[in-house]
Amino acid sequence: MKRIALLSILVTIFFAPLSMASEAGKRLDHFFLSVQSLQADFTQVVTDDRGETIREAAGTFTLLRPGRFRWDYTSPNEQSIISDGQYLWIYDVELAQVTVKKLTDALGASPIMLLAEPRSMNEDFILIESRGSGDLAWVELAPKMKDTDFTRVEVGLDKQTVREMHLKDQFGQKTKIRFEKVQVNQPVSQAQFHFEIPAGVDVIGLESGFPN
Predict the structure, then answer these.
(1) Burial 63-98, CB ≥16 within 10 A → b, else e
(2) Which CATH number covers residue 156?
């Protein structure tokens, strides 16, 4: 599922420092070292290799270190992707279906190690270049992981936080994510990351028993 591959890349970027002397690298390191919680609205646009829009989505994103995050898609379909630090819950409202996996199984060992034992992003990415554009400083990275769907990642940061991300896949498609109404280090309840299985939905995964 490409959305999970995307999430794996985002987890790496949101939880790992990057040792780099450029302005973009310094801003990304500052984000990693100073941001404990983040709340934002997001828009997500996917374009094909000709630059034509093929998919759009929007919703809200919440991050709480260590290891907790949730993406709530509000359009075009309602879907929530929630990490409580141990499990990843994917709830599709239209399909009335919940998929639950251990977080390490869902996202892969390399990115998830960052949640428990942070290490430099340089271990997972190769720096291509860094640049400035308007109010944002950009860093471009190539994943070292051979099995990822994405071949290039661009991260745009203001002086406080990540504001934009562009991810290019092996077919030339580009996913652009923009964060708006960003709130950094504001109180976030851990209860937001506890998922209650709605009545009447199908549940897939963890056949041996579900977490409480």
Answers:
(1) bbbebbbbbbbeeeeebbbbbbbebbbbbbeeeeeb
(2) 2.50.20.10
Answer yes or no: are the C-beta atoms of 7 and 14 closer than 8 Å: no
175 three-state secondary structure: strand
Distance separating alpha carbons of residues 135 and 119, to the nearest angstrom: 28
In this predicted structure, the answer to whether residue 91 has a pLDDT above a threshold of 50 is: yes
Distance between CA atoms of 125 and 87, rounded to whole angstroms? 25
Residue 51: which region, alpha, beta or left (left: phi > 0; alpha: psi -120 to 50)? left
Does pTM surpass 0.90?
Answer: no
Q: At what angle do helices 2-15 and 109-116 cross, to 10 degrees?
A: 30
- Looking at residue 5, its pLDDT comes to 61
Q: Quick check: is 44 in a domain?
A: yes
Angle at 43 between CA 37 and CA 46, to 5 degrees: 125
Structural domain range at position 173: 2-199
The residue type of 65 is R
At residue 136's C-alpha, the angle toward residues 134 and 139, to 5°, is: 125
Mean pLDDT estimate for the chain: 80
